[in-house]
Amino acid sequence: MDLPDSFLADMSALLGEAESADLFAALQEKPLTSVRLNRLKCPPPTMLEEQMRVPWCESGYYVGLRPVFTFDPLFHAGCYYVQEASSMFVAHVVKHYVTAPVVTLDLCAAPGGKSTLLRSLLPEGSLLVANEVVRNRAQVLVENMTKWGHPDVVVTNSDPEAFHSLPAFFDVVLTDAPCSGEGMFRKEPAAVEEWSPENVKQCQERQRRIMTDVWPSLKPGGLLIYSTCTYNIKENEENVRWMCSELGAEPLPVPEVNPAWRITGSLLPPSEDMAMSGAGEGLPVYRFLPHKTQGEGFFLAVLRKPLGEEMHPTLNEGLPAVSRKGKREKMVRRAESPLSQEQLRQTKTWVKNAEQYDWTFAGNRLSLFPSAYSGQLQTLQSALQVLQAGVTVAEAKGRDFVPAHALAMSTVLSRDSFPSVETDYAQAVAYLRKEAIILSDAPRGILLLTYKGVPLGFVKNVGNRANNLYPQEWRIRSGHVQPEVNIL
Fold it and tell me: For 93-118, what is each residue's pLDDT tens digit?
């Protein structure tokens, strides 16, 4: 890999000749591959060993040489997410700072790594809004959040500026800001080709604009988690310093960071660093450099919005929690449902704890959303472009009303409502390619296919064949014959 001369010069000035040489050497090595398990879905892993665990994330594991994830049915079933290990440090932050139900925003969420991480770690009763401004990337986000399976999620497709109309709405905002991508050089060669000092400056300006846009939507006392996957100080320390001076943000240290993890602190010169704590410890930021830590380049800082008159902290800084106020409103039915009351009653048996959700019919789809957050959803719908909220339970197809694939992926599925048929590897891959499936000795009607005991999706067995109900747009398009893939 030929690194840009300006990048080499900048890193040499920032790190010194000896350490920058170590960084440049590390960037010529093969990147590590890591996954994070969905504990609500995945079977107990047999292929992953304790020494392979990502130390700052309990559900993260290194997996050695990168397998062909496309051909692992458990990947499509949402049992794990392929995520860069360094970015899993967000798990350590959430573990220490978020201990009560919160409304959280992942502002730049696609393809979904940090959103799926947040949804796994946020306390029970929390709501996650996962937003992506680019439409085609937002559709990938919808797919990944659907496969992860949590009902307490809203996926939106809005510009950060739209969040101005949601003042003091979120307890936690995660902004993994679009950046120059220096930390991804050894994984994405295109990042090297696109890099330039001018692009770094443009990214810094864009990041500040994004933070200015989203800051009003954060509640007083709330947390902003700011991250990038780049090395330079313009997009990292300088932006944190700017947020402190211009937005009044208070930088917070992350507790219990093990020195053995070899995470690096601020790279500002001591004369420029900020003594933000009483002990004069400087700016609390966290850098992952691949010649020190096992992962790609990553930067993170945690900042708190100053308390104002509308105090609503639900975080563990010793501040009293304030209950949400306001009368809960039921969601409005947006279209007349073609289901009879008996059909609706039967459909609700497909879902665990169906009484905890509001049920709506729109287009040809019946969906559910947690009743506890119905008022917040209405507010989101008035301000943002909502692509998906909660779980799509069923779809009208002609005269039939069939369970949606999202139901099979969801943790709300009542599995006893459908006969299950366990598939082998070849059948599972055929199903994921949306090929016809032959199921001998299986009952007729809607069946739930499983692989290693995990739901893959639905088929409608008509006797001599089973109609494949897997989403057309999600199918495996490769016709390559692949030996069985075992990640877990």
Answer: 999 999 999 999 999 999 999 999 99
Q: What angle do CA 458, 463, 467 make, to 5 degrees?
A: 35
Buried (b) or exposed (e) across 390-402, using 16+ Cβ within 10 A?
Answer: bbbbbbbeeeebb
**Is it the case that residue 376 has pLDDT exceeding 90?**
yes
- Ordered structural domains, the chain, with CATH: 5-30+83-304 (3.40.50.150), 328-415 (3.10.450.720)
Question: What is the rounded CA–CA span in Å between residue 51 and residue 61?
Answer: 9
Separation in Å, CA 424 to CA 35, 233, 414, 427, 439: 23, 51, 23, 5, 12
Report the SS3 class of residue 283.
coil
CB count in 10 Å sphere of residue 316: 12
Q: Name the H helices within 149-278.
A: 189-194, 197-214, 237-247
Residue 306 pLDDT > 80, yes or no? yes
| The CA-based dihedral angle spanning residues 313, 315, 318, 324, taken in that order and rounded to the nearest 10 degrees | 40
Residues 382-428 pLDDT 10s: 999 999 999 999 998 877 789 999 999 999 999 999 999 999 999 99
Instruction: Kindly calculate the radius of gyration of the chain based on its CA atoms and give it in whole angstroms.
Output: 24
CA atoms within 13 A on the CB side of 208: 19
Q: Which two tokens stand for residue 217?
A: 């939507």
pTM: 0.92
Enter the DSSP assignment of 57: -
Q: Do 80 and 110 contact (CB within 8 A), yes or no?
A: no
What does pLDDT average to over the chain? 90
| Calpha distance 400→129 (Å, rounded) | 32
* Cβ pair 299, 84 in contact under 8 A: no
State the greatest distance between any 2 C-alpha atoms of the chain, in Å, as a whole number: 77
In angstroms, what CA-CA distances link 453 with 77, 79, 302, 423, 434? 11, 11, 39, 9, 20
Give me the helix-helix angle, 197-214 and 237-247, nearest 10°.
Answer: 30
Can you name the residues that pair with 302 across neighbouring β-strands?
225, 252
Sign of CA dihedral 108, 109, 110, 114: positive
Q: Show Cβ contacts of residue 354 under 8 Å, excluding neighbours closer than 6 positions.
A: 348, 368
Q: Which two tokens stand for residue 391?
A: 């779980």
Which residue bears the tokens 């890999």? Answer: 1
> What are 10-66's pLDDT values in tens digits?
999 999 999 999 999 999 999 999 999 999 998 777 777 877 999 999 999 999 778
Residue with tokens 């500002």: 268
* Dihedral (CA of 117, 120, 122, 125) sign: positive
3-state secondary structure 321-348: CCCCCCCCCCCCCCCCCCCCHHHHHHHH
